[in-house]
Amino acid sequence: MLIIVCYDVNTETREGRRRLRRVAKVCESTGQRVQKSVFECQVNLMQFEDLQRRLLAEIDIQQDNLRLYRLNAGAGTEVREFGVFRAIDFEGPLAL
């Protein structure tokens, strides 16, 4: 399956800059960089779960944002989202 990993790490502190480097290293070990904070990874289910575990061990979910897009041919799309950013549910009701 194809996984898209996107992240935004708060780099205002020295520790944040270290987290950014560690998250990038985890992604580089599994996939290819397609943008500065976006990677494409071709993995099986076990590798996907391992990648998610390793990334969650590196980020600070109180300050950072991590999104994992799992793209399966013919099986639909699943997005797992962690951290401070919350996407808009475009399928839900619209409130003005």
UniProtKB/TrEMBL annotation:
SUPFAM superfamilies: TTP0101/SSO1404-like. Its cofactor is Mg(2+). Mg(2+) binds at residue 8. Pfam families: CRISPR_Cas2. Its EC number is 3.1.-.-. Keywords: Antiviral defense, Endonuclease, Hydrolase, Magnesium, Metal-binding, Nuclease. Gene3D superfamilies: 3.30.70.240. The keyword Cell membrane does not apply. It is an enzyme of class 3 (hydrolase). GO terms for molecular function: endonuclease activity. Homodimer, forms a heterotetramer with a Cas1 homodimer. Belongs to the CRISPR-associated endoribonuclease Cas2 protein family. CRISPR (clustered regularly interspaced short palindromic repeat), is an adaptive immune system that provides protection against mobile genetic elements (viruses, transposable elements and conjugative plasmids). CRISPR clusters contain sequences complementary to antecedent mobile elements and target invading nucleic acids. CRISPR clusters are transcribed and processed into CRISPR RNA (crRNA). Functions as a ssRNA-specific endoribonuclease. Involved in the integration of spacer DNA into the CRISPR cassette. This is CRISPR-associated endoribonuclease Cas2. It comes from Parachitinimonas caeni. The gene is cas2.
